[in-house]
Q: What sequence folds into this?
């Protein structure tokens, strides 16, 4: 049992030492003074025709990224709610009504 504890302790030391070495290398990184990487994105329709500067484009791309994640989450939530709503509405229908609805959706009106 003591060998297992010793091996676990040695493994933890190697992991921690590796993390510290990686942090020291980052401090000496010459890229620290480089300008920030350009953000990529897509301008809304017609925005590219109004003479935006590169700085304005970068700011717009940053704003899009800031709100994009939250908008995607909300769209997913809306889709989830619509799916749940549709299931609940279909649960109200009789079997014959479900078949008629399916036929109507497939364009097979009888």
A:
């Amino acid at each position: 049992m003591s060998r297992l504890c010793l091996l676990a302790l040695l493994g933890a030391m190697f992991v921690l030492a590796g993390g510290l070495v990686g942090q020291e290398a980052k401090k000496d990184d010459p890229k620290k003074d480089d300008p920030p990487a350009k953000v990529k994105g897509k301008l809304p329709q017609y925005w590219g025709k109004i003479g935006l500067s590169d700085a304005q484009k970068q700011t717009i791309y940053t704003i899009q990224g800031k709100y994009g994640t939250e908008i995607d989450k909300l769209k997913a939530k809306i889709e989830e709610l619509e799916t749940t709503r549709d299931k609940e509405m279909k649960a109200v229908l009789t079997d014959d009504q479900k078949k008629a609805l399916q036929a109507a959706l497939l364009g097979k009106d009888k």
